[in-house]
């Protein structure tokens, strides 16, 4: 019993040490993957929006593009944090912003398909 607790503490200490030494590098390494995912979602929605002028109202198009603009701006902010980091915190912020950009791009796509189902009416 006592031995198990000691082993558990040792494992926890080893894990903590690994996180300390690998933390900054791992986060920095992960940022580009989050950027790529967000950019792919933006590109997909942009592609889906092509040729929609005849199938959607101008107002609906503008709202989908507003969400896409949010995604692009947030992704640009994420890249800035990653490229000019003060420390690990900025890489963490970069990942947070990239994931937020991914969310906006997906929401833009959802909104686009919602408007398509509503056949161009703002509902
Ligand atoms: Cu980074």
Number of domains: 1
Seen as an oligomer or otherwise, the chain set is single chain
**Helical run tally:** 3
**N-to-C SSE string, H for helix and E for strand:** HHH
Mean residue pLDDT? 83
Please summarize the sheet with the most strands.
Answer: none
Low-confidence stretches: 14-22
The tally of strands reads 0
Helix content: over 70%
Task: Find the structural class using helix and strand composition.
Answer: mainly alpha
Summarize the entry for a quick read.
By secondary structure, the chain is an all-alpha fold.
Descriptive overview:
The structure is a single chain. The radius of gyration is 21 Å and the shape is elongated. It has one domain (27-119). The protein has helices at 2-49, 58-83, 88-117. It is mainly alpha-helical. 85% of the residues lie in helices and 0% in strands. The protein is built from three helices and no strands. The structure holds copper (II) ion. Residues 28, 31, 82, 91, 94 line the site of copper (II) ion.
Q: What's the helix and strand layout?
A:
Blueprint: H1 2-49, H2 58-83, H3 88-117
Helix pairs in contact: 1-2, 1-3, 2-3
Residues 28, 31, 82, 91, 94 line the site of copper (II) ion.
Keywords:
123 residues; 3 helices; elongated; mainly alpha; binds copper (II) ion
